[in-house]
Write a structure and sequence with these properties.
403 residues, alpha+beta, 7-stranded antiparallel β-sheet, 4-stranded antiparallel β-sheet, 15 strands, 16% strand
Length: 403
């Protein structure tokens, strides 16, 4: 079951073997895809995905915002995880960390880069991308492109009629509660994850794939992590606005946030963005999304995201979304609108992606932390030591407690 946790780009593994045959001259892309989740080092790849995949680009802001410096800190030497003392520096190395950025009250108090990370390096976010997509949905609602998240998604995507998504509320899809069946068994060539993955090996359409899923549960009753739900939301943004994700996001988020650097989305052969896990940006620019939600959707005097949306996005509002609910997640996490919500009295929430990508926010302590990694042992087996999300949160909490 842990394989399902934050799976996002995990489906790329399935494309690997076929990739050697079908990618032709692009052997670099095929090699990268084939080695995901095998224990091979990936830090030499995650900062240059645009060298291997088709992309849609977002230009840096015309008015870039440079976070001010705060009083610098040193990281706590150790932190505690399940009663054991963990050396912080060793943990950072162990998880192949490329970037670690800590902000308090909007000021940078710690910033460091390792391996192929760097201030100007765009790093693959994996499923942190999902939090950007849900934000775009919220903006599209505010602008009237989407009438209401109580509407069925098929009001905007009629091609999904007859699929698992037929008549499903947009809200249930935002909350990973669509009811769609999802099989992530890598050993089954007909599993959903393998069928999805073959799109990247053989070419094809992400939008066409969405219509192939079947319903398993009543929508709105069970939180079942399924990256296709996010792909549906991406297609919704495109259909409702009449613009690509990259184009809409450039105007509504990337430019207003004052992005320092260009960013890009990986796409399929038809130019549709990989909404579930294909966004690439720098650590400082990822931090701006965390800061935006820490401040309730307000940015430098402008309400970029409606305040009620920003609150709802990080607030589980039904029993099946609470941290204690049964959802197959191996440690207690709740769910909002494509944001994970920690079991906490301090309102902590986070975007999380495989290989240990994080945009973590503790609003009670005014802290945002970005960690970009290429943890080579990720998902090699089902042991906790092949995931490390829960352990990473304890490191973040130790940093917050040390302030």
């Amino acid at each position: 079951m842990k394989k399902l946790l934050l799976g996002g780009a995990a489906l790329l593994l399935a494309a690997g073997a076929a990739g050697y045959v079908f990618f032709g001259s692009n052997i670099d892309r095929a090699t990268t895809v084939a080695t995901l989740f095998t224990g091979e080092e990936q830090y030499q790849n995650f900062h240059r995905m645009d060298d291997m995949f088709p992309v849609n680009r977002l230009p840096a802001s015309d008015r870039p915002y440079d976070f001010p410096d705060g009083d610098k800190i040193t990281l706590p030497a150790t932190f505690t995880y399940k009663g054991d003392t963990v050396d912080t520096e060793e943990f950072i190395k162990l998880t192949d960390t490329g970037a670690l950025l800590v902000l308090r009250d909007g000021k940078i108090i710690y910033e460091n880069y390792w391996l192929t990370g760097g201030r100007d390096e765009q790093w693959l976010s994996m499923s942190v991308a999902k939090s950007f997509i849900s934000t775009l949905v919220g903006i599209a609602v505010e602008e009237g492109h989407i009438e209401s998240i109580e509407q069925p998604v098929t009001a905007y995507l009629p091609d999904l009629a007859g699929s698992a998504y037929d008549g499903v509320r947009i809200k249930d899809i935002l909350q990973m509660s669509s009811g769609a069946a999802w099989n992530e068994d890598y050993s089954d060539p007909d599993s959903d994850i393998n069928r999805f993955g073959r799109i990247f090996a053989l070419g094809g359409s992400l939008n066409d794939f969405m219509a192939t899923l079947e319903r398993e549960r009543e929508p709105g009753t069970y939180n079942h992590y399924n990256s296709t739900d996010t792909q549906v939301l991406g297609a919704l943004v495109v259909a409702a606005t009449g613009r690509s994700i990259a184009d809409y996001m450039t105007e509504k988020l990337w430019q207003p946030l004052g992005a320092e650097s260009d960013a890009f989305w990986l796409t399929d052969d038809e130019g549709m963005e990989m909404a579930f896990g294909g966004f690439n940006a720098t650590a400082r620019d990822y931090a701006k999304l965390g800061e935006l939600f820490r401040k309730g959707g307000e940015w430098r005097g402008e309400q970029l995201v409606p305040a009620d949306w920003a609150k709802a996005a990080v607030t589980p509002d039904a029993p099946h979304l609470l941290p204690e609910a049964e959802n197959g997640i191996p440690f207690p996490l709740g769910y909002g609108y494509q944001w994970w919500v920690l079991d906490s009295t301090e309102g902590e929430f986070s975007g999380i992606g495989v290989y240990n990508q994080f945009v973590y926010v503790n609003p009670a302590k005014d802290v945002t932390i970005v960690k970009l990694s290429a943890f080579s042992d990720y998902a090699k087996d089902l042991e906790q030591t092949s995931y490390r999300e829960e352990e990473t949160f304890e490191m973040f909490r130790a940093i917050v407690d040390s302030l």
